[in-house]
Amino acid sequence: MRLQGQVAIVTGSSRGVGRAVALALAREGCDIVVAAKTEEPHARLPGTIHDTADAVRALGRKALPVKCNALDEFGRADILINNAGAIHWAPVAEWPAGKFDLVTGVNVRGAFLCSRAAIPHMRARKHGRIVMMSPPVNVAKVAGKAPYLVSKMGMTMLAHAIAEEERENGIAACALWPVTMIESEATRFFQMGGPAEWRTPQILADATVEICCADPARVSGRALYDEEILRELRSISDFSTYSVVPGTTPAPVCRQMVE
User: Fold this and answer.
1) Which residues pair with 225 in a beta bridge?
2) Which of 138, 156, 219, 242 could bridge 175 with an S-S bond, Cβ 3.0-4.6 Å?
3) What does the pLDDT read at residue 30?
4) What pLDDT digit, counting tens, does each position of 168-224 carry?
């Protein structure tokens, strides 16, 4: 249990990638702050903060499934995973202003506020890891996705800035992005491919654990792909176990989106 005794805050962890990340960190010894908006069962969306908290507790770790100050409960914050996200795709001329505000507010503003709140406490302990679920900052295939990618790449810029600004304070920061589409409520709702084109959220969860356990000098200030970090730190070259449909090889759609 490489993260025994540490506390991780995982935003958007009631389902999908966030839930998988929370459970993966718990298996490595972290107590988990389950931070998400779904507190009561939803008619369409499976999972609540309480469901994830129960699963964390079943692994023998502590969990805090409420919107609150984590420091009051655990007294420390070692890891922050900025996973919560909003998504909408459309040509620029067809983006409602409200959707723009929602996407940028949840993605980049949310990551900014959570990071800003966590950094002083990480500074005090001279230790901290911040991971943004966002892509490398490139200018590529943005048609139909511009405001969404503006918000996600803004998260990556925050990671680069924090890595440089807080290096002497023992805080590492980086960005993490999938190579392929990940099975989630978003990929199903927006019909982004089908099961044969998806990987499970576990690939991002495993990559996140390796980032949080690595020497900060190896990961801080980088924008990483899940495959890249698992090859580098876990020596994995066969990713077939992460395919939703056994025997399929999902295409690198997410990587192609920004390259």
Assistant:
1) 177
2) 156
3) 97
4) 999 999 999 999 999 998 898 888 899 999 999 999 999 999 999 999 999 999 999
198: left (phi over 0), alpha (psi -120 to 50) or beta: beta
Beta bridge partners of 181: 198
Tokens 């680069």, residue? Answer: 160
CA distance 127 to 131: 14
E-assigned strand segments in the chain: 7-11, 31-35, 63-64, 79-82, 128-133, 171-177, 181-182, 198-199, 223-225
The residues facing 227 across adjacent strands are none
Q: Please, what are the domains in the chain?
A: 7-258 (3.40.50.720)
Active-site residue (options: 74, 100, 148, 177):
148
Handedness of CA 20, 149, 35, 96 (dihedral sign): negative
What is the per-residue DSSP string for 163-202? HHHTGGGTEEEEEEE-SSEE-SHHHHHTT-S-GGGEE-TH
Question: How far is 121 from 118, CA to CA, in rounded Å?
Answer: 6
Cut 0.70: pTM above it = yes
Q: What is the sign of the dihedral through the CA atoms of 70, 186, 223 and 137?
A: negative
Question: Active site includes 225?
Answer: no
Residues 6+ apart with CB under 8 A from 148: 87, 88, 89, 103, 107
